[in-house]
Design goal:
heterodimer, A: alpha+beta, 2 domains, twelve-stranded mixed β-sheet, 52% helix, B: Rossmann fold, five-stranded parallel β-sheet, four-stranded antiparallel β-sheet, 21% strand, globular
Chain lengths: 420, 247
């Protein structure tokens, strides 16, 4: 009978504790692997909040600030870009397409983004995904709006719903654009990006909202322009907040960036969104490291639990060891038996952990996709996961050497004496 | 096994003490010949455990030679003594000396996993381990196949001891050492057990050393040795004998 066979039999004789030990290791492994997977996916998802866009251009500010207001709609632009400048820079030969955005209005805490049809054509996020519609279609009419999935879900809006936008982005004391209500023309699918929390209207719509405003103040009844009258007026915007640029060739990115940064008529900043997103993740991503550290601790706790189980069993198994010695087992066999036991715990625990993790992923993947737009790819374990599994098994072996060594010493001291 | 009266155990001037300066065992000479069934009478405290430790190669003498099957095992490395014990000696202990989580057959065949020579002995008889185990168990009057399937913990103590005997005998070790194997049995089963053990030792050509404090069984054996008489340790220090029982 092989040592492995003996170890398996011995463990199955102590089924309850053995299974509990394996289970606790499995849970800790599943947690660690799950956290690692979510961490990687969250980072991927975050750093690809914008993809396919080569540069983001806005008024001169820090790259982080520009990224925050243009992509995440957090905070405010320091300044606007004049329409002329935008026209000039977007007609650069290197430019393939641009998506202008105009910020400043909101609705129930959600940002209004004024943009053009190019948004639906060229904007990409994640793994080169375009914006898709769950219902409806892009804005067509002047007073059409497209809303993100979260806006639709939280406010319960559907296509055809009338929406009154507010001036400014403060949560209180807003002035409403009551005279020019918008109609929801389309609802987007979840993206897991700030796009879920926007209300998009045309640049002309933004212009129409403010056509009768003077110096940022609402008009009195005398000077106000009705929604219908606004349609007939010149709605050419005078400025935008920022714009996204797609270049014909990525090689031109640095040159175009320099052109923008050196633009004489206006102080502008162009950022590479991928780089800026990476920098931002460095800031917000430290939580992920804490999470990973915690799950590593949980694995250590699981392994220490195993050590405790084995050490506790040692005394009651002294007789067993002495019998094995008397039938010819050498102290080395006893050592191997105990190490094998630790390995069985570690390997089955780790395997079960993988099974649990994959089970969990399959269970939560659709939920995450639907509610958070976070797509978690279920792939075969990668190198990191395999290294992790290897490290756990190695750690278990090292820990297992402690009781194995004790059993070895015991069996040397006890000899063949079977004590009652 | 060629010559009939080959010494299996030969102790010469063997001294052993757990601590330097104390002697718990001092045997000028002990000779057990091949095929003998020797009864060693040892009340508790007579150095019995120590003697078995020396014969099994778990302990090494402070002085003198412990020769088993013509090998001075005191000179062996501990690993070699372990191999030697596994290959050549079968042990039967007092009680509870079966592995509780193994079946009857697995318990009997257990030594074969550790002793190549005994495994070869079984093979040379043209049987596999399981068949040989069943054969031995049958000879020891454990014939109920139902019984052999059950966990060993459900067997009676008498049955357990017969399983232990089969385990000691499998693969025909040259020497079988029994340490109070009958102490938990009642007097009827005790004698029956010993007769079965004798028969199997004879069939296997094994020498039997039977250690017990119970002199009622003495008459059944070829020869009887009183450990008190051959052990001169008490002449060194009257109290030192106590130590052997404690450790």
């Amino acid at each position: 009978m092989s040592i492995l066979h003996l170890a398996v039999k011995s463990l199955s004789n102590r089924k309850t504790t053995a299974l509990l030990t394996i289970f606790s290791i499995a849970i800790s492994v599943a947690l660690l692997l799950g956290v690692e997977r979510v961490r990687v996916e969250a980072r991927n998802s975050f750093t690809s909040t914008v993809s396919g866009t080569d540069l983001v251009v806005g008024a001169r500010s820090s790259s982080l600030n520009l990224l925050l207001y243009s992509v995440f709609h957090i905070g405010n632009a320091t300044n606007n870009i004049t329409w002329e400048t935008y026209q000039d820079l977007s007609s650069n030969r290197a430019v393939a397409w641009t998506i202008p955005i105009a910020l400043g209005d909101s609705h129930q805490g959600y940002r209004v983004v004024g943009t053009t049809q190019t948004m639906f054509e060229h904007f990409r996020f994640g793994d080169d995904q375009p914006i898709r519609f769950r219902n409806g279609k892009p804005f067509d009419d002047l007073y059409d709006a497209v809303i993100g999935s979260e806006v639709a879900a939280v406010l319960g809006y559907q296509v055809g719903q009338e929406v009154v936008l507010s001036h400014g982005v403060e949560s209180r004391a807003l002035q409403e654009h009551q005279d020019k209500p918008f109609r929801v023309a389309g609802v987007l699918t979840p993206t897991g990006t700030p796009m879920d929390r926007v209300i998009m209207i045309s640049l002309e719509g933004i212009e129409a909202l403010h056509i009768d405003w003077v110096n940022g103040a609402a008009p009195n009844a005398l000077f106000s322009v009705s929604a219908d009258r606004a349609r007939a007026m010149d709605l050419q915007p005078s400025s935008i907040t920022a714009y996204f640029v797609g270049l014909k060739s990525r090689v031109a990115a640095f040159r175009y960036q320099r052109d923008v940064n050196d633009y004489r008529q206006e102080a502008l900043t162009a950022i590479l969104p991928g780089v800026a997103l990476g920098e931002l993740w460095q800031l917000v991503g430290s939580a992920e490291k804490a999470l990973l550290a915690v799950s590593v601790m949980v694995v250590i706790a699981g392994l220490v639990g195993m050590l405790t189980t084995i050490l506790t069993s040692l005394n009651e198994r002294r007789r067993e060891m002495a019998i094995l010695r008397s039938v010819g087992a050498r102290p080395g066999h006893i050592f191997t038996l105990m190490i094998t036991e630790s390995l069985i715990y570690a390997i089955t625990g780790t395997l079960l952990g993988f099974v649990m993790m994959y089970g969990m992923l399959f269970a939560i993947q659709p939920v995450l996709q639907m509610h958070l737009g976070l797509h978690i790819t279920i792939a075969m374990p990668g190198l990191f996961e395999l290294l992790l599994a290897g490290a756990i098994v190695v750690a278990a072996t090292i820990l297992g050497a402690v009781p194995a060594w004790r059993a070895y010493k015991n069996s040397l001291a006890d000899g063949l004496t079977v004590r009652l | 096994m060629s010559s009939l009266r080959q010494p299996v155990i030969h102790l010469k001037g063997v001294q052993f003490g757990w601590k330097p300066g104390t002697v718990v065992l001092d045997i000028p000479e002990l000779l057990v010949n091949q095929g003998e069934k020797v009864f060693i009478r040892g009340p508790s405290g007579s150095g019995k455990t120590t003697l078995l430790g020396l014969l099994g190669g778990v302990l090494t003498p402070v002085a003198g030679d412990v020769s088993v099957l013509g090998n001075d095992i005191g000179c062996f490395s501990s690993a070699r003594r372990d191999h030697f014990r596994a290959d050549h000696i079968g042990f039967i202990f007092q009680m509870f000396n079966l592995i509780p989580y193994l079946s009857v057959i697995e318990n009997v065949t257990l030594p074969l996993g550790f002793a190549r020579k005994r495994r070869e002995n079984v093979q040379s008889m043209g049987a596999d381990a399981g068949q040989e185990a069943i054969r031995l168990l049958n000879h020891l009057e454990l014939t109920d196949t139902q019984l052999l399937q059950r966990p060993v913990t459900e067997l009676s103590i008498g049955q357990q001891q017969r399983v232990a005997a089969a385990r000691a005998l499998i693969g025909r070790p040259e020497l079988v050492i029994a340490d109070e194997p009958t102490s938990a049995l009642d007097s009827d089963t005790r004698e029956a057990f010993i007769r079965l053990l004798f028969a199997e030792c004879e069939a296997a050509g094994s020498t039997l050393v039977f250690v017990s404090h119970d002199s009622a069984l003495e008459s059944l054996f070829d020869r009887s040795v009183a450990l008190n008489e051959i052990n001169r340790a008490s002449q060194h220090r009257p109290l030192s004998a106590e130590a052997s029982e404690v450790v």
